[in-house]
Structure formats: structure tokens, C-alpha cells
Amino acid sequence: MVLVDDDDHGVEKYLTSWTSPDDPSPGDFVYKIQNRGLADMVVLEGARKRYRLGQWNGMHFSGYQRYPNPIFKPFFVFKQDRLISIEEAYETSLFVRSTLHTSGSVQRHTLNLRKGGFAPKLQKDWDLQDWSGGCKRIKPLNYNGGDGFRQVRGVKYPDLLRFRLNTSMSLDECKVECLKNSSCTAYANSFITNGGTGCLMWFGDLIDIKQHSGADSKQNVYVRVPVSELDFNTGLEEENEKKRPMEIVLISIASGVLISAFINGGVLYLARLKRQAVKENNEDLELPVIKMATIVQATNNFSMENVIGVGGFGPVYKGNMPSGEEIAVKRLSRCSRQGIQEFRNEVMMIAKLQHRNLVRLLGCGIEEEERMLIYEYLQNKSLDYFVFDHSRRTLLTWPKCYDIIMGIARGLLYLHHDSRLKIIHRDLKTSNILLDGNLTPKISDFGLARIFQQDQSLAISKRVVGTYGYMAPEYLMDGKYSEKSNIFSLGVVLLEIISGKRNRGYEHSDHYHNLLGHAWLLWQENRIVELMDECLNDTFKECEVKRCMQVGLLCVQKFAEDRPTMSSVIPMLSSDGANLPQPKEPGFFMERRSNLVPVGNIASPSCIKSEKETITITDLEAR
């Protein structure tokens, strides 16, 4: 694993803690290189420095007496006295795992089964490098004269979770007292002055031990083990111990986890399997972290002139990296109530997805209170920028509209059926379809998306989030979302592309229907081609337009079970001779009048605002 602090290329890589032991999304702590005069390794909680290893002195970090150690062999890269990167490798038969704990503490788990009498509880998990099940003793402690102590030299004492301190007792007396108590797992001098004085005993788990100095150190711990696991019969013989190769054996009776933290280097990597949300991909999330200073420079200090869009998440800025690459920076708005959750969701999700019709995530920025997502820059902004603007609308010929429709459908098919993760977007709309220089569509904004298991077909949300005019009836009314709710949104987008009109806010002199209702009336009267924007008159193919309109109406049918699946939508759109089903009445096809929104027999509150606003009505949020 490599930690990086490279200003020239605007790249920074560091460790991030989990939110909680069961939630792998980014937590509050980071462990990183810090170059301020002299290089250091620090743990930060936001802007607050929680721990530092000590400045680099030319040979090692000053907080430790010697570096490197026999196990870990780091490789350093400096550029003009600036520490650019650290790569840590180790050569040992020990099992090692390093983590940044949710509390901000850096821990390395060193597991030695060769000596000390331990074995994995779950060997299959260990084979997959998952050591969370811990260890078990091969032979139990005797407690009746059959135990001894192994001396571990030069270590930081274990954490004082359960302990007993007696400053007047000698080391020999301490050993006797520890042997008398079946819960005592280790003992040591409480002070190393005057040749060692006092007695400190630990009970239960031994947590957070680190090797601190050479074998001649006076700071030693005596760990309880069965006599059969020693190379002698008296429990402890100093001379034999001096000849023995030094090793750390950490005993955890309750949890069975053997822990050694921060061994001489402080260069750690997060190597834990992502669970649940990324069950199908057990590789760690590897996403470049772009430094805040680089993003500020790229966006001209977040200049208003660089703003290329604003959504429920926050503003989006155009930027230019030092390499010349153009980027789009989505900056989390501090007043966005769901912003951090959306940020974590999008990082975890879209980083695992690769398709030509999905926007590409290049990296993220996390510094103090700032949360930013760095995307590829798409020159032609979003689809609504063209569809709903009278002058730019003329640039979309029918062949190009048809290509855009097919591209969106292929991207959605990938999310539903072909990707490793089955994704329900929940906020598919015209403004969330971005266009590159060739007007190739790319689905974006996965902050509200959810992952389904491959065999899962339906979920229920207590908090409905999305955009009015695109949400399916079963989702808006009952919180039920599925592939079919995405398909409803696709149908709305499809009809908006063809007509050049928005679903919400659509007005007609003869009725109060929205765009869906107007399309439904035209279909019933066999006048469906009249829905098409007149700017397409010179380029359209009537059979393709009718087919796309019919598929759009099939997608927005009121009942989810009547709507097609994505695997059938693609053939419907692309087959000239396809015999398509007749659509039924669409859902939510009436627009608001006066203070109420007629939706079938449902009246929605009059406090509903524009698409770009986010409001809360009990458990309902909409944009």
C-alpha cells in the first residue's frame, strides 16, 4: 500500500477510518503524510491533530528509537526534501493486518501461531485474510502449577483495561501473585527505574502492544503461557530467554484477537474487506484523493465563473488540473441535510461501476469539513441544457435524439442486469444525464442510488427522496422502489426528449394534464406524432418516433407490474418490426391546478416547490 503527498501532480493518498465497525463508509479520521518543514505522519480528526509520529530526521521518524525494524521494510521517495510517498512491505511468516480504528487509533494486528500455542478459530476466513474471528488456544492454561511466563522484551505496555497496580511489590512477588489468579494474563514492573520496581498485572485481553527498542531494553512484559509451550520447565529462565529469537505473542482470551499496534514505522494500510454494500467485490476501495489546494487552484478558488451546474448535493465547478486534464468538481453544500450520506454513497457505488454511458469518477477530496467528488468533465453539460432550451434544442436532430435515448437505456440496463452491483438509481432525470463532446449520454448523480442483491426485486424506504415529475406512483405514495420505478423515470425522460417539454409544469390550453397526460390523450386519439417537437420535422423517421413514444408510455404505466423490464426495453426501442403491447393509463398524469395537485385521486400539498428545491413533508423529500 502506498501513502502519497505529491503537490506537483495534485495527488494525495491516505488511510481513512470506517464510520463504525459495521459501516465501511469513510469515517472521521485520516492517517497521512504531512509535509510542514520536516515530514511527519499524523492522525487527523477533521483539522484537529490527534497523533503524530515525529518529524523525519534523515534516518527514521523521531518518535521511534530505530527504523526500520526486522519485519517491516518501507521504501521512501523524497523530492527536494519533501516526502512524496511511502510504500511499506514486510517479509515475515507472521500474519499482519493494519487498520485505522473508528476511534482514531492506528493498530497493527500481528498474529504469530508458530510459537505461543494458538490456532485460527475459523481457518477458512483466515485463508481469505479475514482474521476478525480471532484465535483460540491449542492447549488451555492449567492454572494449577502448569503455567509459566514468556518474557517479551522492549515493548510498550498493554492498554490498562483490567489491571492491578502495587508500587511496593517486587517483580518476583508480582509473578507469584499473577500465578495465583486464574484471570491474570501478564505482569511487569510498573517502573523501570532503580533496576525495576513495583508490580503491574493485566487481566483478560492484552491490547495495543508495540515493539519499542532492542532486546536489551528494561521495559519487558511477562506473558502467561502453558509450560508445555516453553522450551524449559521452570516457567522462566533469563539466560534461555536471551538466546531465544525475540517475538511478540499477544494473548486475547475473550476475543481471541492478538494485537500489536504501531510497530516502529507507523506506515499503515487499510486492508479490510468491504461488507454488505460491496459484497460481490472484496477488494478495498481504491480512489485517488485530490488535495484541497489542488482543487482550489483548479477551480480558481471556486469562482462563480467556474460554476457549471447546481443540484440538491451542491454546486458543480469546472476545473483544470496541473496536468491539463479538465475535471468537474461536485462540492458538498454544507446546508445539504443529506449531503454527507449522499457523498459516501456515491463514492462507494460509482467507483465500482464502469460503462461508457455512466459518468466516470476520477477521485474525491476530503479535507476538514469539505467533501468533493471529482468527475471527468463533459463539455456539453446536461441533457436538459439542450432539450428545454429553444435555441440549443435545434442542435439535436432526430438521429442524435435516438442515439441519446439508446445510450441512456443501455446505461440503465447495465445498472440493473450487467454490473457486479445491481443499482436502483432513484433520481433518474434529464438533468442527471450528462453529454460528452460527441453528445454521448452518461448517467450521473448516484447520491440517492441503492444497491440490490441480485435476487432482490423490491425495497421500501421510510424516507422518499427524488424529483417530482420523475418518481413512480408506488415510490412516491408507499416508498416502494425497484427496477420498475427506474423504468418509470426513464419513460418520463424519453417523452421529454421527444417533445422538448418538461413533464412538470407542462401547460395546455385544452386540459390540465401534465406531459404524460397529454401524451396519453394523443395516443388514445391516434395523434401521438403531434407530441414530437417541431424542430425534428426535417430529420425524424416516423416509425422510430412512434415506437419510442409508445415505449415511453409503456414505461410510465400506473402499475409497476405493467411496465417492461430493461432487458425488454432495449429490443423494443431497436426493433423496427417489433409488435409492442398497447400502453395503459400512465401514473400521475394530471398537473396541479390552483392549490392542489390532482394525481389520480390523490391531492398533494400546495407547498411543493420547483424541481431544484429540496423540501421535507413528514417523511417525503423531493427536488
Description of the structure:
It is a single chain. With 623 residues, this protein is an alpha+beta fold. It folds into four domains: 111 residues, no CATH class; 131 residues, no CATH class; 88 residues, 2-Layer Sandwich (Phosphorylase Kinase, domain 1), CATH 3.30.200.20; 240 residues, Transferase(Phosphotransferase), domain 1. The protein is built from 13 helices and 35 strands. The strands form twelve sheets. It has a five-stranded antiparallel sheet. A five-stranded antiparallel sheet has the order 13-19-16-17-15, with helices on one face. Strands 21-22-23-25-24 form a five-stranded antiparallel sheet, sandwiched between helices. Strand 5 and strand 6 form a beta hairpin. The longest helix is centred in the middle third of the chain and has 21 residues. The protein is elongated, with a radius of gyration of 32 Å. About 15% of the residues have low confidence.
Which architecture name of the largest domain does CATH use?
Answer: Orthogonal Bundle
Structural class of the helices, strands and pairings? alpha+beta
Domain count, please report it. 4
What is the fold-level CATH name, i.e. the topology of the largest domain?
Answer: Transferase(Phosphotransferase), domain 1
Please identify the top-level CATH class of the largest domain.
Mainly Alpha
Dominant shape = elongated
User: What percentage of residues falls in helices of 4 or more residues?
Assistant: 10-25%
Number of strands: 35
Largest sheet at a glance? 5 strands, antiparallel
